[in-house]
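Encode chain A's predicted structure.
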Amino acid sequence: MKKVFLGLALCLVAISSWAQQSLSGKVLDAESGEALIGASVWAENQGKGGVTNENGLFTINKLQSGDVELRVSYIGYSAVKQTLELPYSGELTIKLQPKDLMTEEFIVSATRASQSTPTTFQEISKEELAKRNLGQDMPQLLNFTPSVVTYSDAGSGIGYTGMRIRGSDQSRINVTVNGIPMNDAESHGVFWVNMPDFASSVDNLQIQRGVGTSTNGAATFGASLNFQTDTRTDEAYAQIDNSAGSFNSFKHTFKVGSGLLNNRFAVDARLSKITSDGFVDRASSDLSSYFVSGGYFGENHVVKLNVFSGKEKTYQSWYGLPESKLEDDRTYNYYTYDNETDNYQQDHYQLIYAGKIGSNWKANGALHYTYGRGYYEQYRNDDVYSNYRLPNVTIGDSTITNTDIIRRLWLDNDFYGGVASLNYVSNDGRWDVVFGGGANRYDGDHYGEIIWARIAGDTEIRDKYYNNNAVKDDRNIYLKATRELATGLSLYGDLQLRFIDYSFSGMNDDGRILDDKENYNFFNPKVGISYEKSGRTWYASYAVANREPKRADFTDNEIVEIPKPERLNNIEAGLRSQSGSFTYNANIYLMDYKNQLIPTGQINNVGAYIRENVANSYRAGIELDAAYQLSKSWTFGANLALSQNRIKEFTEYVDDYSTAEFTQESFTYSDTDIALSPNAVASAMIEFKPVKNLSLNWLSKYVAKQFLDNSSSDARSLDAFFTNDIRISYSVQPRFFKSVELNLLVNNIFNEMYEPNGYTFSYFVPGESQKELVTENYYYPMAGTNFMLGLSLRF
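Encoded structure for chain A:
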């Protein structure tokens, strides 16, 4: 009997194998006859499919004999359904008709660089972001792009994270989403923790290094990030992404889309939840977000409404790790109060229009509103009543001047406005002109309250010990044009005017009354030339950017001593090649600063540290970026940035506690390194595809020594580091799913102990014979070997 069953089983296997068929064919543009690369081919009744290669060819294996219902689709084309009988004989060619629908790319075209634009940039697709998107914040996903250094307060890449590009921090990197400014109007920074899992709703991203072409928001002082959110998907879909890994980290994302309804409408939505304990003790994150987009897509007009929000609760770890604990207690966190947390929610509303006006004109406009509110809570041990404008407490014959308190520092702000542009392209294509601008207002309340005191005295819960308001109006208008002078030779010009009105009133947290207004008018010109031939573009440009001081420079300085605005003169020149199996970019740059604002240790009249202008400083370097596809199985990529980042002269102020009366001692330095600006940053990536649908990746990152301040002192520096990660991706297309993908990311496989960020301060204390200088360094250590494992299901 066993032999009979075995024989039957073998017969069934043989019959099943014999009944399985393969189907091959090609997908073409019905009008031009060109191959469509990446078109989706799906056997709906059998749950199997594939995509077309660089020649428009596809093959679907392991299909059952009989009827197969084939659906072929491609963005910008009408989908085709066709029923075939397998086995199929003959050559299968499927032609797709282009749809007469307005493309969404124009929404971001006013702030984007094109191939002929004479500036340094890099574009990153949705697919590239998705490879690393297992829960870590946006800076970590961009870690292997040129000149980028990333860091994380919690050490795990989740929670408070940031990046520097060419040594410029977040407050000098301009960020736009669909052409709408995202930088905080007061601090000039972007807090990615307020946008958890934003990468899951990004269609593409352009990084411009240097001044670039950014036209909305604060002037770029190091780089700009230009995001376009998810574009229309013609087919209905649902997607579930789940990942889990080290430090009890989890990410759950659900996405759904209606596809194109009635050939005109589409709705997409996303819901995300990310949690992590963090590498550092108690540095936990509890993040949630959503993204909803609905749009009308006509032949000449697109109207979209985007609503997205992020809510975060993170346990504070921004104090850093003292140098004394660097070797034996890297997870140490200074904060121990159980609710030492940051709590914030930010809601975004975007109404966007893009349309064609005749054959030569396109228009783009957007209205936006962002509402942010939240606080961070702190336990303060033995704090002084006078710091909160409170009287001392008298109990019997004792006068109490200090007590333990818990306080909350609040932000409640509104940011709203509009941006618009009008684009003209001549009939011969030699003129490409964009005229546009924007007007935005920020209205922010800042206040602090005491929610508990061990010895409260004459106080009430929620008493506000400071309360102030700031209103900032930022308007800009620009005209930029590209003129083709001869075949492949183009001249580029960009003229921008910015007008800033900034007013603030109320009481500052140090007790000073704020009541003043400041106005700035800036002219930011850009000019360049490019030459394209045989897939290569040579370019050179000169650009100017001016920027106003940030909020702290107003509130921490005396009104009569507010710093001067900063100015940047930027020269970029390079060559990029985007054709064939070998692509590369090479460029040199000079970023020459006038009146750059830096911390020097100087204090104001109430003891708060302030930033001061340094007359002359610069960043100069060379950047190399290349990728080579050796075969269908092997791809190599690498980038290298070498730079000099120098301050010609500045004065450092050091606190002196060696005598009864507090003073500061000054030291003057010449030709020193700019803080946190490494002279070398490099990345390397190797991808190996041993079989279809399996991808093995090795990723390496090197960052040279960084100085914690501007003194170029080795005693105040971060060591160079070299890290290596492994990424493994495997995808299949089983029945009932469009795709199933498994991703494993192992970070820091060699357990490198490194710190990409930190801070320092020094002071004098009494010594045995003379005063002694004490320097305290604090670091933000990154985790050792850790992993994230993700499973993605697409229906």
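The chain is about 5% helix and 60% strand.
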